Amino acid sequence: MTRTRWAEIFPGACIWLTFIVTIILSFIRPIWMIYFIILFDLYWMLRIMYFVPFLLLSWWRYRRALKRDWQKEAEAQSGYQDIYHLIFLPTYKEEEHVVRATLSTLAQADYPCERMIVVLAGEERDLERFEQMVTRLKPEFESTFMHLWSTVHAKDMEGDVIGKGSNLHWSGKQILPNILATGIAPEDIIVSSFDVDTLVHPKYFSCLTYLYLTVQDPTHSSYQPVALYNNNLWQSPAPVRVAMFGTTFWLMTELARPEGMMTFSSHSMSLRMLMDVGFWQRDIVSEDSRIFLQGLVHYHGKYRVTPIHLPVSMDTVMTGNYGKALIALYKQLRRWAWGVENFPYMVRAFRQDVQMPFWTKLGWLFKQWEGAYTWATAPILIFVLGYLPFFVAPDSFRSVALFQNTPFTLQWLMRFSMIGLLVSASLALTLLPPRPARYPRIYAYSIILLQWILLPVTFVLFGAIPAIDAQTRLMLGKTLGFQVSPKRKL
Questions:
Q1: Strand order in the sheet with 221-228
Q2: What is the mean pLDDT of the chain?
Q3: Which residues contact 403 (CB under 8 A, 6 or more apart)?
Q4: I need a labelling partner for 51 at 20 to 30 A (CA). Which of 101, 354, 408, 421 fits?
Q5: Do 296 and 213 touch, CB atoms closer than 8 A?
Q6: pLDDT at residue 371 above 70?
Q7: DSSP letters along 297-347, please?
Q8: Alpha helices by DSSP H, 338-400
Q9: 415 lies in which domain range?
Q10: pLDDT at position 42, please?
Q11: Contacts (Cβ under 8 Å, ≥6 apart) of 445
Q12: Residue 441 neighbours by CB under 8 Å, 6+ apart
């Protein structure tokens, strides 16, 4: 066993130990389990009550950010004329109309497009399709931006894990000489790594520029927007919508307390940081959070996330078939849960970093472990194993007052926890994209509200189980390749 192999085993071992002990104690010590379940449900209720104010605060900041004239505020800052944006759009077998829509949205930004450099990062495994797409798109858009470049990630390179991270690594290294040849200082270039279906808010780049010019040590920060999955939301199955809204609300809660958050999905950072850390890693799946950790380690803990309370919108998984869409959703969430691979990386990197404060290391390790652990265990304990003692307890125990009263106690705890559900359902209505005319108003919004009834099922099937799957794979030493989620606008 390698020195950090235990760190790969630890997260998965914790969840399976929890489940095994819970099942055994339900049979041999049901009263212990009942006490545990009451305390756990109480903890979960308090956690929800703690998160709701942060969600509301982030939503309020989001609504306020939409109204600000970020371009005017950015132009008023010293150094505004020096800032350029470098935008990576990695793509693999993506439909041309999706890429065209993304480029069109970039062209509609209120920030000057002549200070944007856009890179279409294709794969040699999809070479013919990609080159044909670039040939058609370049005449449309190359005069819009300062540059519209394309790169092709060579296939079967030693040390690469097929996926977004290795593509970005290759693309970044390929275009760096061209960037440096422009004479623009790396400190004046803000890099955005977007999923190719990302539609940015028109004010995104002006807001990003303003923040970059006003925060302390801007090169020691990543910049995280609100991730919405609105591009094809109305056409998506209800479980997909619930899961995607859940992701958005989790991220908004994190944005309200960014001191402990990592980057997720589409986000931005400085070119200087990317050069310092050697660009994205080539051998991982979860490059969106790993690039933050690379900065955290390189700068010995002095790296952070700056929230952007403006949205970027992406596609939900969409296959045209309800069952296949749910399978694709499961695989997407399992890939996100594979972010647990960051835990052994952090253990290994923190051990080697003698300059990072001990408590900083411990705080990040605990947050990474606790997030992965509760993701996998909480839904199972609340909705499944929490009721096991009541089914298997011996007859002699069923007359005990604790046994008879606990179900009512749990019901009241869950009712209080419903506050989080009500808040989520209400806020979801304010984040919806425009309603297609073919969906009657009353029917459409009724479905959006009623879909939250599926939350317990979604919480288990598309929350806990993908997380258990991912952590168990890591525990057993298996890998999880990068699987592109099917995203088709209907």
A1: 147-153, 116-123, 84-90, 189-193, 267-270, 221-228, 304-313, 199-200
A2: 90
A3: 30, 31, 34, 390, 393, 397
A4: 408
A5: no
A6: yes
A7: HHTTT--EEEEEEEEEE-PPP--SSHHHHHHHHHHHHHHHHGGGGHHHHHH
A8: 342-352, 358-383, 388-392, 395-398
A9: 1-490
A10: 86
A11: 429, 435
A12: 435
**Which among 253, 366, 353 has a CA at the least distance from the CA of 296?**
353
The whole-model pTM stands at: 0.92
Tokens at 473, concatenated:
């794979």
Confidence of residue 490 (pLDDT cuts 50, 70, 90): very low
Structure tokens at 399: 């007359």
Report yes or no: 281 and 198 within 8 Å, Cβ to Cβ.
no
Residue of 267, 319, 327, 314 lying closest to 98 (CA atoms): 314
Distances in Å between the alpha carbon of 380 and those of 37, 48, 228, 468?
11, 17, 27, 10
Q: What is the tens place of the pLDDT at every residue in 249-272?
A: 999 999 999 999 999 999 999 999
**Tokens 């061209």 found at:** 178
The CATH number covering residue 429 comes to: 3.90.550.10
Q: Which residue has the tokens 């104010």?
A: 53
Supply the pLDDT for residue 49: 87
CA distance linking residue 324 with residue 331, whole number of Å: 11
| Token digits of residue 29 | 């010590």
Instruction: Examine the pLDDT at 413 and tell me if it is beyond 80.
Output: no
Q: What is the pLDDT of residue 335?
A: 92
**169 and 286 in contact (C-beta within 8 Å)?**
no
Beta bridge partners of 311: 226
- From the list 118, 124, 121, 123, the residue with the least C-alpha distance to 146 is 118
**By the 8 A CB rule, do 179 and 189 touch?**
yes
Paired residues of 118 in beta bridges: 87, 148
Q: In this predicted structure, what is the pLDDT of residue 420? A: 80
Tokens read off for 141: 């858009």
Model confidence at 319, in pLDDT bands (50, 70, 90)? low
* pLDDT above 70 for 481: no
Confidence check: pLDDT of 483 > 60: no
Tokens 């309800």 -> residue:
322
**3-state SS, residue 393:** coil
First to last CA, the chain: 49
The structural domain count of the chain equals 1
Express each pLDDT in 121-144 by its tens digit: 999 999 999 999 999 999 999 999
